[in-house]
Design a protein that fits this description.
208 residues; 18% strand; single chain; four-stranded parallel beta sheet; alpha/beta; 10 helices
């Protein structure tokens, strides 16, 4: 049972390996890391890299992947749309998180790059359906520069501080998988949701 994961940063590899070891023994992960996809999607829009994503996913399926998980929120919708043509499930890592958040009334979305906001908001709206949900967004100032500089601790500290500054919300959503470990650094009493755990669980089930 093999699950392919499409990443736009190598920092995700050990995160998902650890989650697999803790909760999904026997699941083989094949990591596909393509940092350039995010850079080009941010510059020209996610649809600009749809052809390359399609080719990468087709290659993963040809190599034996039973399902594919896209761990990048910015290109997740583009990847997910390929599921029908590939014949195997293609999941976006943030959908289970969004489904949980959309069940609440007041949601604050934290992101470190603005390009993640539109796909995340669209996903929340899709999961909420006709139910009214008040969604506010916060771009964590300076966080992405820390991430790009390789200062992962500094990045997570800024995200955690932004979460702790949130008031008047039922749930906080960490829009990017790279933010997940900030959950352990927060002191807020508001539930903070991240995508890797529930995303991998959904993909593991789909790969069975």
């Amino acid at each position: 049972m093999t699950l392919a994961l499409l990443h736009t940063s190598p920092v995700h590899v050990p995160v998902f390996d650890a989650l697999r070891d803790a909760g999904h023994p026997g699941l083989a992960l094949r990591h596909l890391v393509h940092e350039d996809l995010l850079a080009r999607a941010r510059e020209s829009g996610p649809e600009a890299v749809s052809g390359e994503i399609r080719a990468l996913l087709a290659g993963a399926v040809a190599d034996g992947a039973r399902a594919v998980l896209c761990t990048c929120s910015t290109i997740g919708a583009v990847a997910e749309a390929e599921s029908a043509t590939l014949g195997v499930p293609v999941l976006r890592v943030d959908r289970p998180m969004a489904a949980a958040a959309a069940a609440r009334e007041r949601v604050v979305v934290l992101a470190s790059i603005t390009g993640t906001l539109a796909p995340t908001l669209a996903l929340l709206a899709e999961e909420a359906g006709d139910r009214p949900v008040d969604v506010r967004t916060v771009v964590v100032d300076g966080a992405w520069a820390r991430f790009e500089a390789g200062d992962h601790d500094g990045y997570l500290d800024l995200v955690a501080a932004a979460a702790d500054a949130v008031t008047d919300a039922d749930v906080i959503v960490l829009a990017q998988a790279s933010m997940a470990d900030a959950v352990t650094r927060t002191v807020t009493r508001i539930p903070v949701l991240s995508s890797p755990g529930p995303g991998l669980a959904a993909a593991a089930a789909a790969a069975r």
